[in-house]
């Protein structure tokens, strides 16, 4: 049965070098924000996604967890969702896409000048990606999100949102909504075919500062 779902597709756990959230904290905060679906997308790792999904299932929680990975390529970062094996980092973008094609491919913060978005490479791979992150809460300049939104609309690519959260207070700061059955296959299909509503707020510089300190204490 279809219903309106609230989704955050960009969350980092303690398995990201610059993250500190444990699976339970991610789930607790996500449920408190009334999220129905989350994607845990650690830097170059799927461990956080697997542990969060397994914990949600073990506890019988009414939330869908999609396992993902934010992968560093030679050209910038891409997110791949719905995978069970890690994809190697630092490969050429085209080579990474060969391994990523089994999953659902998103370009996060593509035009953010201060982070590893793929930017100008989008034209080369636009036919290989499933969605573009058109609102990222950690993008400091709203214009960078607007560029992503414009590119998605111009090229008829679905636009999604992600909080890019590394701390519990950030979860749900950006999200999107769709009408879909709450099954991963249906969700990903709906994103490609149906209307998506984007919601979000920028979280400013403070989370970046906190993130920069995390590796010092790990």
Strand and helix layout:
Elements: E1 3-11, H1 23-32, E2 37-43, H2 47-59, E3 64-73, E4 76-81, H3 93-100, E5 104-107, H4 122-125, E6 131-136, H5 142-154, E7 159-162, E8 174-180, H6 184-193, E9 197-200, H7 206-213
Structure description:
By secondary structure, the chain is an alpha/beta fold. It has a single domain (about 5-215), classed as TIM Barrel, CATH 3.20.20. Helices cover about 30% and strands about 25% of the residues. The protein is built from seven helices and nine strands. It has helices at about 25-30, 45-60, 95-100, 120-125, 140-155, 185-195, 205-215; strands spanning about 5-10, 35-45, 65-75, 75-80, 105, 130-135, 160, 175-180, 195-200. A nine-stranded mixed β-sheet has the order 7-6-5-4-3-2-1-8-9, with helices on both faces. A hairpin with a 2-residue loop joins β3 and β4 (about 75-80). The longest helix is centred in the first third of the chain and has 13 residues, at about 45-60. The radius of gyration is 16 Å and the shape is globular. The N and C termini lie far apart (about 45 Å). About 50% of the residues are buried.
Name its key features.
single chain, 218 residues, alpha/beta, TIM Barrel, nine-stranded mixed sheet, 7 helices, 30% helix
Summarize the structure.
By secondary structure, this protein is an alpha/beta fold.
Superfamily at the CATH H level? Metal-dependent hydrolases
How many helical elements?
7
In the CATH hierarchy, the architecture is Alpha-Beta Barrel
Instruction: Please tell me how large the radius of gyration is.
Output: 16 Å
SS-based structural class?
alpha/beta
- Class, according to the CATH hierarchy? Alpha Beta
Strand element count: 9
Tally of structural domains? 1
In N-to-C order, the SSE pattern is EHEHEEHEHEHEEHEH
- Main beta sheet strand tally, sense and closure: 9 strands, mixed
Give helix % range: 25-40%
Q: What is CATH's topology name?
A: TIM Barrel
Unreliable stretches: none
Main sheet: which strands, in order across?
7-6-5-4-3-2-1-8-9
Shape assignment: globular
